[in-house]
């Protein structure tokens, strides 16, 4: 939970909003990303950070897209709205081998969004801890260049580039752009 909570704080910084990370149902958790453009990047950061931690625990993410009525009192335990309902329903229906799904959104866009999440789920499941660490750093865009990232990790720039290449990081550019440039304003 601590790893996920730290990731949620970083996501809050990227999305410029409070994610209101909340432990839910014992070993479950919730967070909110108010701008749906960030849902794929946020999901990948959570998966990468958990894999990079080396603790050997996975999580399952059902990203609910849609409106919400309220975000609850002091946490998300009493939040209401379509985004929360579809997320919970899809999480309950997820096959055990899946770690990542997207739920809700406009009917005409669900297929391409689900296809991206399916591929990203498989791709991220292949990452080593070192690859996940590099991907998590690159997704945050906190570094000016690969050299700066490599120095932070204590490795060569070439070693960093190899980790990112082996993780298929360059293949994430188009899906991330699709989510981040999509007009989510009409989503319901």
Report on this model:
α3 links the parallel β3 and β4. This protein is mainly alpha-helical and 188 residues long. It contains eight helices and four strands, in the order αββαβαβααααα. The protein has helices at residues 2-15, 39-52, 82-93, 110-125, 129-140, 146-153, 157-166, 173-181, and strands at residues 22-24, 28-30, 61-65, 100-104. The chain is 51% helix and 9% strand.
Content-based structural category: mainly alpha
Order of helices and strands: HEEHEHEHHHHH
Q: Work out the helicity level.
A: 40-55%
- What is the CA-CA span between the terminal residues? 30 Å
Radius of gyration: 16 Å
- The beta-strand count equals 4
Strand content: 5-15%
Globular, elongated, flat, extended or rod-shaped: what is the shape?
globular
Descriptive keywords:
mainly alpha, two-stranded antiparallel ribbon, globular
Topology:
Blueprint (H helix, E strand, L loop, with lengths): L1 H14 L6 E3 L3 E3 L8 H14 L8 E5 L16 H12 L6 E5 L5 H16 L3 H12 L5 H8 L3 H10 L6 H9 L7
Helix pairs in contact: 1-2, 2-5, 5-7, 6-7
Brief account:
The protein has about 190 residues and is mainly alpha-helical. The protein has helices spanning about 1-15, 40-50, 80-95, 110-125, 130-140, 145-155, 155-165, 175-180; strands spanning about 20-25, 30, 60-65, 100-105.
